[in-house]
């Protein structure tokens, strides 16, 4: 079981079920703006997500096809969910360690910031 939380603890959750055992790094401009750099996330079925505290959880419709979950108290970026999907992207940085995860791929690499290079050997995709 994986557990995680926002910085202030007003959103705490667990994943009761299977989660992807890798992290996807998204370099699109929207992810960079909402997270402050790149968005690193894993993925799980939404039905497996259980909240132990959700007083701070707020959702932002970041496009006409997706929304982002964050803590309204501390601002932690926590979730990404496509409107018509049964799964949810979960910020890797908010998960309690150890996770046992590894970086599985980079997506939207053509949109990456100009101030860094991708130097690992994982697949780099122009889209997802």
Describe this structure in words.
The protein is mainly beta and 128 residues long. The protein is built from one helix and ten strands. The protein has one helix spanning 29-35; strands spanning 2-5, 11-15, 22-26, 39-45, 49-54, 57-60, 66-71, 77-82, 87-91, 102-107. The protein is globular and about 35 Å long.
Low-confidence stretches: none
First-last Cα distance = 27 Å
**CATH 2nd-level architecture:** Beta Complex
Please report the total strand number as a whole number: 10
What overall geometry do the principal axes of the alpha carbons give? globular
Overall domain count: 1
Protein structure class: mainly beta
**Total of DSSP H or I helical runs spanning 4+ residues:** 1
The CATH first-level class comes to Mainly Beta
In N-to-C order, the SSE pattern is EEEHEEEEEEE
Strand order of the largest sheet: 6-7-8-9-4-3-10
Strand content: 35-45%
Fold-level CATH name: Metal Binding Protein, Guanine Nucleotide Exchange Factor, Chain A
Portion in helices: under 10%
Oligomerization status of the protein chains: single chain
- Mean pLDDT score: 95
Cα radius of gyration in angstroms:
14 Å
The main β sheet shows up as: 7 strands, mixed
Quick description:
By secondary structure, the protein is mainly beta. The protein has one helix at 29-35, and strands at 2-5, 11-15, 22-26, 39-45, 49-54, 57-60, 66-71, 77-82, 87-91, 102-107.
